[in-house]
Specification:
This protein has 423 residues and is an alpha/beta fold. The protein is 36% helix and 17% strand. It folds into two domains: 266 residues, Aspartate Aminotransferase, domain 2 (3-Layer(aba) Sandwich); 89 residues, Aspartate Aminotransferase, domain 1. It binds pyridoxal-5'-phosphate (PLP). Pyridoxal-5'-phosphate binds next to α4.
């Protein structure tokens, strides 16, 4: 009998059997039978320390010996308290409150509920819709699907099931763009705000890097402009740093490139180094303090069973310690150097007729093609070279673990390039 495991995003009729992973070490995982694959995606961008990192494994083991789980309703514990303090310390100035949950999608649901209730409590209940961007991806739960790109965002068939929000065009200016070059993108945002601000509670964005929606990159000026527009129209700014957080764009948080503090910021993926599912929704005093009041409606009505799980908090603390002690930002800079040299600056790749664009930001690189069919077979091709790639749509990308060394980074970029250039 075939396995009863139902795989995500898989076409059941045509899917090939999934290879079985039996272990991993550093940037590689091992398959049953001994094949070892260099993971160019660090498992959907979360395994930033690679596999079987001794410090993370030990942190989980020690915590398991003390306390695996306890509810956060009416109780607290050291790992949750310490992690919340650490997140406040390292995140943009002013984010002083931390609400835990168990996944990136739920962290975003929390952010949206917080924004709606914030306005409600301030006497603006009409501000109950979101403003979000085309090419956005914020998760797979219902509330999140409604703020993903409605056309290309994989969820179009659910349109009738979802609440209606407002969409602005995806930013088009590049990371390097000047303030003037970003103006058209900001004007487009302003247009939607001018028309609908009475019902818009929050502007949501994946700052600088729209990840699962096609690795679209934009400028720090866009973040600063969005911050100013949110002030002008009494709209909360929510940064979904689920993918960009913890170094992916070259700074600890994408917000750091722009010196912007969002009102709410969501972290997940890299938070625990990928070792356990968890998320954190951070809020400023302004948002938090609106919930201080006498009516029963002032309580924030959300509480995932596993929020603040001690194992997850403990491994997240260890992940942060390793990140700082082992100079991950320096490592990311080194990886960025290789990605720029091998991919962004490769003239033959840029000139290849199938290739539409090559973009690099921090420890992220993507080769965008004109037509998705030109990536058919790319994953199998890379696997023959010992590299695990998982392209989607028109995007062949890498988001490596930060412990990937230069040789392995070149192995990954080589597999990506050779798919186009060695045929
Ligand atoms: C992955 C992702 C999510 C959803 O996180 P899950 O843990 O898969 O629910 C939300 N936002 C962004 C930007 C993501 O990349």
């Amino acid at each position: 009998m075939p396995s009863p495991v139902w795989h995500p995003y898989a076409h059941l009729k045509t899917q090939s059997p999934a290879p079985k992973v039996v272990g991993g070490e550093g940037p590689r995982f091992t398959l049953e039978g001994g094949e070892s694959l260099l993971d160019a995606t660090c498992s959907w961008w979360c395994m930033i320390h690679g596999y079987r990192h001794p410090r993370l494994v030990e942190a989980i083991q020690r915590q398991a010996d003390e306390l695996c789980h306890v509810m956060l309703g009416g109780l607290t514990h050291d790992p949750a308290d310490r992690l919340a303090r650490e997140l406040v310390r390292i995140s943009p100035e002013g984010l002083n409150h931390v609400f835990f949950s168990d996944s990136g999608s739920v962290g975003m649901e929390v952010a949206m509920k917080m924004a709606v209730q914030y306005h409600y409590l301030r006497g603006k209940p009409a501000k109950h819709r979101m403003l979000t961007l085309m090419k956005a991806y914020h998760g797979d739960t219902a509330g999140c699907m409604a703020v993903c790109d409605p056309e290309e965002g994989m969820h179009s068939l659910f349109a009738g099931f979802l609440p209606q929000h407002h969409f602005a065009p995806a930013p088009t200016a590049s990371f390097e763009a000047s303030e003037a070059e970003v103006q058209a993108d900001l004007d487009a945002l302003r247009q939607v705000l001018e028309a609908h601000h009475q019902e818009i509670g929050a502007l949501l964005m994946e700052p600088l890097l729209q990840a699962a929606g096609g690795l679209n990159m934009t400028s720090p000026h866009y973040l600063r402009g969005a911050r100013a527009l949110c002030e002008e129209f009494d709209v909360l700014l929510v940064f979904d740093e689920v993918a960009t957080g913890f170094g992916r764009t070259g700074r600890l948080f994408a917000a750091d490139h722009a010196d912007v503090t969002p009102d709410i910021m969501v972290l997940s993926k890299g938070l625990t180094g990928g070792y356990l599912g968890h998320a954190a929704t951070l809020a400023t005093d302004r948002v938090h303090d609106a919930f201080i009041g006498d009516s029963e409606l002032h309580a924030f009505m959300h509480g995932p069973t596993f929020m603040g799980n001690p194992l997850a908090c403990r491994v997240a603390l260890e992940s942060l310690a390793v990140f700082e002690e082992d100079d991950y930002l320096g490592r990311i800079q080194t990886l960025n150097g290789v990605l720029c040299e091998e991919l962004r600056d490769d003239a033959a790749l840029a000139d290849h007729p199938a290739v539409a664009d090559v973009r690099v930001l921090g420890a992220t690189a993507v080769i965008e093609v004109h037509d998705a069919t030109s990536l058919e077979g790319a994953a199998a091709f890379a696997r023959q070279r010992g590299v695990w790639l998982r392209p989607f749509g028109r995007w062949l990308y890498t988001m490596p673990a930060y412990i990937t060394d230069e040789d392995d980074m070149r192995r990954i970029t080589g597999a990506m390039k050779d798919w186009f250039l060695s045929a």
